[in-house]
């Protein structure tokens, strides 16, 4: 499955000074670090031209789902059919309390190529904040909408967006006894879902490389387990080789050059790492316990993992060569599935305590633990590439596992836009 190339051209980011009205106040922005933030009211009228209404709807949905923006109902719009060549009638947008305004235009040339121009306006300051142009094939219009969403998000929050991404996960179907688990992939907004395996064997723990459109996952068959690499661009699938024992829980290093995983032999489980160029592997832990779920720090110098060497599952951090292991979780309960954030600021985890499950975060030294969710069964967090949002799976009593998201403040918790049963999500890097 080869990704189509998206060509991007950046036009003038700001209009000429003479064309701007003097700002009435400071430019709008969203402070993403406040736990009590009020979503910013934004208006996204349908863009002019072919696919314009659909592009605007995808942008609206992306911004609303982030929890940081409150799109205004189009029924309230006073000015309609905006032209990007002219300033909006700001008074009309102030009347409905729109603080941000996104408008655009779509044109299609004789070859069918799509060009989308858009503008982001600060309504109360009466000035343009951003103007960009994207060019692509017409069938790639959704990716254009995601890229515009990312640009608006970044301009108003100061952080990279995460909308032009995909999620690989385990799609589940059937009953509890005859459950079918297939590797699946979708856009982060639930669009374009497809299966990558046929369901003839069980797949678990898919993980994205942070540098390419490549995934690693565990395949479980009656004869044993294997770890695979799957290049989504070329469709090439290959095994990491044969191991003496069960192999599971693979994860890439941040630079994509290594894969850490666990090997179980005779009741003892240790963390191993393989260099993908030389295919040489080494054992990093040797404690007579269960050491699993390794996750590299962004700089590759450390690995966090889960171990019961202290009597119950807890989180540890060690150097990338296996030395200097130290425990970082000390709260009550059981800690599992640690994953380092792309920014290096936090380690996310699953916690079981008091008969419930939680998704939480703590700093790499173990300080600042915060529980973001509480449910009958929440597990398996994965980070969006900007380190702001986590996706995880949630299961209710007697129900199927579903995908959910939560931001790092714990304030914005909502179901992911995938209506079927799914677990073990893994977020891709931003697409090129």
Label this structure with key terms.
432 residues, mainly beta, Rossmann fold, Neuraminidase, 2 domains, 6-stranded mixed sheet, 4-stranded antiparallel sheet, globular
Give a structural overview.
With 432 residues, the protein is mostly beta strands. The protein folds into 2 domains: 151 residues, Rossmann fold (3-Layer(aba) Sandwich); 262 residues, 6 Propeller (Neuraminidase). It contains 3 helices and 30 strands. The strands form 7 sheets. Strands 1-6-5-4-2-3 form a 6-stranded mixed beta sheet, covered by helices on one side. Strands 9-8-7-30 form a 4-stranded antiparallel beta sheet, with no helix packed on it. Strands 10-11-12-13 form a 4-stranded antiparallel beta sheet, with no helix packed on it. Strand 4 and strand 5 form a beta hairpin. Helix 1 packs across helix 3. It is globular, with a radius of gyration of 23 Å. The N terminus is likely disordered.
How is this fold's topology laid out?
Elements (H helix, E strand, L loop, with lengths): L6 E3 L30 E4 L8 H14 L3 E3 L18 H6 L4 E9 L4 E10 L4 E11 L3 H17 L8 E8 L6 E8 L6 E2 L6 E7 L5 E8 L2 E8 L5 E3 L6 E7 L5 E8 L2 E8 L5 E3 L7 E6 L5 E6 L6 E6 L6 E2 L6 E7 L6 E7 L2 E7 L7 E2 L5 E7 L5 E7 L6 E6 L5 E3 L6 E6 L5
Parallel strand pairs: 2-3, 2-4
Antiparallel strand pairs: 1-6, 4-5, 5-6, 7-8, 7-30, 8-9, 10-11, 11-12, 12-13, 14-15, 15-16, 16-17, 18-19, 19-20, 20-21, 22-23, 23-24, 24-25, 26-27, 27-28, 28-29
Helix pairs in contact: 1-3
